[in-house]
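Aim 2 progress update. The chain analyzed this quarter is reproduced below.
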Amino acid sequence: MKFILDMHDKVRPLFERGGKFERLYPLFEAQDTFAFTPAEVTHGAPHVRDALDIKRTMITVVLALIPVVLFGMWNVGHQYNVVNQTGATDFIANMFRGALIVMPIILTSYVVGGLWEVAFAIVRKHPINEGFLVSGLLFPLTLPPTIPLWQVALGISFGIVIGKEIFGGTGFNVLNPALTARAFLFFAYPVQITGDTVWTKIAADSTGLIEGFTGATPLAVAALVPAGASVLDALHGSDYAGFTWLRMFIGTMGGSIGETSALGCLIGAAILIGFGVGSWRIMVGSVIGLILMSSLLNLLPADNYKAFTQLPFWYHMVMGSFAFGTVYMATDPVSAAASNRGKWIYGGLIGALIVLIRVTNPAYPEGVMLAILFMNVMAPLIDHMVVQSHIRQRKAHLRKFRHA
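Predicted structure tokens:
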């Protein structure tokens, strides 16, 4: 590594101000700081010594995503092999087939989004934003495995340019870029974003019979159960391949690439919290908000309201992308609330809104994306209210001190 560092130091003047390749400095700086600890120091007091810079923080998030990436690949391959009756059921065959489907989606996101990041960095003459290390991987994990690659390129372009760069880049964006990209595809191309085609195989002959079918997602099943019926019976029934709680917790079912396994997300949460990167307050707050809202809806008369209102909170926690959104999306330090009290409020409202959107709006059986984006917009207001509350409390203490 010493030899590589010496080579970097020799060519560094070519990329710095006045050098032959000055305009390409963002590219040099990106790979230089990715491989080595930055040598820059603060020019004036005070000095803060910390070996964990933004790139290392983002790399930690990427490492925390590895469990859901690997499981997502295996699950996609497993679902494909089952539906298409390939006869390949072992772990290696599922991983290989899943990688063939998932990796092009991830690579498209990184390549196209990376080009936008480089273009804006060169034009603005600033370092390449490290946040794309995470956004470029989060976005494809929110997509179904059947999404056309051109839509992946279009979506990540919208998320990076409209969701982040027009605000000034990483650290200035109001909305989560990955969720902004998915929201664009969700409303622009709702048919492709559902991901139905990968789980269905139609016979090639003139009969047109369905040869393989995995069934609807658990949220779609729960949303269609009429009032008076049992939502748990519908989920567990053989007509929908038996969506038991354990199966949904593990994640062996259809859905977006990274959302199906709550177990994988819990492993990621442990990594983020253990390294002090992800906010445990937001995660726990989201769970509390979900529990309170779902428990409140459980009190409604079952015969007069949708059966979805009677779904226990522990099912909500493993259905859809609640775990994925809570662990990886809601905790985005840029678009989330920053104050400790604000994080509790922010997370709690996300959890409550997720249940409310799922149960009351038949058009959006999955409310995670909309709930997080809405609270992204509300996060500055929440922090402002928390700060004002602290100011009022301090003023009250000062008045008591003066009168004492």
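Residues 368-403 form the longest helix (36 residues). Residues 251 and 260 are 5 Å apart (CA to CA). These observations will guide the mutagenesis experiments scheduled for the next reporting period.
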